[in-house]
Every structure is written in C-alpha cells, then in structure tokens.
C-alpha cells in the first residue's frame, strides 16, 4: 500500500459516519489523485478552476468535483458542465451567474455559502446577517438551477486552538439556527488537515483534507 492509500485509510477510520471527506488535491498530479481514487475516494476538492477542469477531463467520470476556492464570476462557465459543489459562494452576483451557467447545461449546481468566521481581514465570506439577507431575497428564492445546501467556513490561520475552536463553534451555532428556518442547509463544511478533529467535535458534516492525505504542498 502506498502512502496516499495509507493516509486515506487512517483518516477515514477517524471520521465518523455522516461526515463527508473531501480529498483536497490542489497542486497534486493526476497520478496522486488516481492513487486515492483506486483506494475508493470519489470526492476531490480543488481551488483553481483551470486545474480542476484539466483533472476532470482526464479522470474517471464518477468523481464528484468540489470547488473549494474563491470563485471569480467570469470563470464559472468553465466548470458549470461538471462541478458538483461550490463551497465558497459569497455574493448574489456569483449565485446568479452559477444559476445561469447551470441552466445552459441543464443541471443544478449545489452551493454552500461561505461565512466569514476568521478574525483576519483577508478572508472572504459573508457575515451572518448578509447570509440571512441573501437567503431571504426573493431573487435568490427564484433561482431554479442552484441548490444552497449549507455553509462553509475557514478558521483563522493560527496555532491558537482555543480561537479556532471558538470560530468553529460560532459557525456551528449559526448553522443550527439557520437549519430551523432552512432545513435544506444540512452541510457544514469546516475542518482541514490540522483541525478536522476539532471541527467534527464542533459539528462539521464535511471536512476538506489535503496535506494529511497527499503530503505537503510546495506552494499554496
Ligand atoms: C487547501 C485547502 C484545504 C486543505 O488544506 P490542508 O491543510 O492541506 O488540509 C481546505 N480548504 C480550503 C479552502 C483550501 O484552500
């Protein structure tokens, strides 16, 4: 068994049933992804549309491709034919474009709203109030080819575990609150290699794990 298969197996056994594992394969070659595929992994996450598209073209077609990075509106069209879940939706403009491009392909694209939980200025995402406003907007309710299935968050890049825990708890609480009004918001995408166990303890239903499966990346 190679390292990737071994890592994948270990992680899978540490994740409870009901939590979905997204194997974050950005910057990694198709041969690495194929190792994970052969070990049974069918959900891959990428953060660049062009890279994801190239991998989609060469790899088996039963893979669910997740776009986990920030999305520019003008690039949605390149992934609309195949992307399964877009994690980082943070504006009505983007949602509208996803709906438009999904229609062209006669399909529905699943989306998560990215909620800003980190204290850092650089992080993308909606405030809780902006997310509520977005979901309550008539235009959003009338979009036919997008399916908003939950929330996504990224904790501050820090070693302070208490802070990460607090940020995860904040979004988990908001997620529970939102589900009472919008039961379709079942997914809570939080947790990466360094903090996924904590994220699961806080209520994560989807973890995005890269380096713990594929090894350290040289960049990004
Ligand atoms: C790269 C990335 C991950 C995975 O990070 P690891 O620390 O390698 O597990 C998860 N989520 C997002 C949005 C990323 O860009």
Explain what you see.
The chain has 220 residues and is of the alpha/beta class. It is built from 9 helices and 8 strands. The protein has helices spanning 3-14, 30-38, 49-58, 92-104, 128-136, 138-141, 161-181, 196-202, 211-214, and strands at residues 20-24, 43-46, 64-67, 85-89, 109-115, 146-153, 187-189, 206-209. An 8-stranded parallel sheet has the order 7-6-5-4-3-2-1-8. Helix 3 links the parallel strand 2 (43-46) and strand 3. The chain starts with a helix and ends in a 6-residue tail after the last helix. The model has no long low-confidence stretch (mean pLDDT 96). The structure holds pyridoxal-5'-phosphate (PLP). Pyridoxal-5'-phosphate binds at residues 24, 26, 47, 68-69, 154, 192-194, 208-212. Residues 24, 26, 47, 68-69, 154, 192-194, 208-212 line the site of pyridoxal-5'-phosphate.
Topology:
Blueprint: H1 3-14, E1 20-24, H2 30-38, E2 43-46, H3 49-58, E3 64-67, E4 85-89, H4 92-104, E5 109-115, H5 128-136, H6 138-141, E6 146-153, H7 161-181, E7 187-189, H8 196-202, E8 206-209, H9 211-214
Parallel strand pairs: 1-2, 1-8, 2-3, 3-4, 4-5, 5-6, 6-7
Bound molecules: pyridoxal-5'-phosphate (PLP).
Shape: globular
Structure annotation, total helices: 9
Query: What's the overall average pLDDT, rounded?
Result: 96
N-to-C terminal Cα separation, in Å? 28 Å
Q: Major sheet: order of its strands?
A: 7-6-5-4-3-2-1-8
Task: Classify the helix fraction into a percent range.
Answer: 40-55%
User: How many strand segments?
Assistant: 8
Tell me the Rg in angstroms: 17 Å
How does the major sheet shape up?
8 strands, parallel
Bound molecules: pyridoxal-5'-phosphate
Low-confidence regions: none
**Share in β-strands:** 15-25%
Oligomer: single chain
Structural class: alpha/beta
Order of helices and strands: HEHEHEEHEHHEHEHEH
């Amino acid at each position: 068994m190679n390292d990737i298969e071994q890592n994948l197996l270990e992680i899978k056994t540490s994740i409870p049933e009901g939590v979905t594992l997204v194997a974050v394969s950005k910057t990694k070659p198709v041969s690495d992804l194929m190792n994970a595929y052969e070990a049974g992994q069918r959900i891959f996450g990428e953060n660049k549309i062009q890279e994801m598209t190239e991998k989609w073209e060469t790899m088996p077609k039963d893979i669910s491709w997740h776009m986990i990075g920030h999305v520019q509106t003008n690039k949605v069209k390149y992934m609309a034919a195949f992307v399964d879940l877009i994690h980082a939706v943070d504006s009505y403009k983007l949602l509208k474009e996803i709906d438009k491009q999904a229609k062209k392909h006669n399909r529905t694209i699943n989306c998560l709203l990215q909620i800003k939980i980190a204290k850092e200025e650089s992080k993308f995402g909606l405030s809780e109030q902006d997310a509520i406003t977005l979901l309550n907007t008539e235009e959003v309710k009338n979009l036919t080819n997008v399916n908003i299935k939950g929330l996504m968050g990224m904790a501050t890049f820090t070693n302070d575990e208490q802070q990460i825990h607090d940020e995860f708890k904040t979004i988990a609480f908001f997620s529970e609150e939102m589900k009472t009004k919008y039961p379709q918001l079942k997914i809570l995408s939080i947790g990466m290699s360094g903090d996924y166990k904590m994220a699961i303890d806080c209520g994560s239903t989807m973890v995005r794990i890269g380096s713990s499966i594929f090894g350290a990346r040289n960049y990004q």
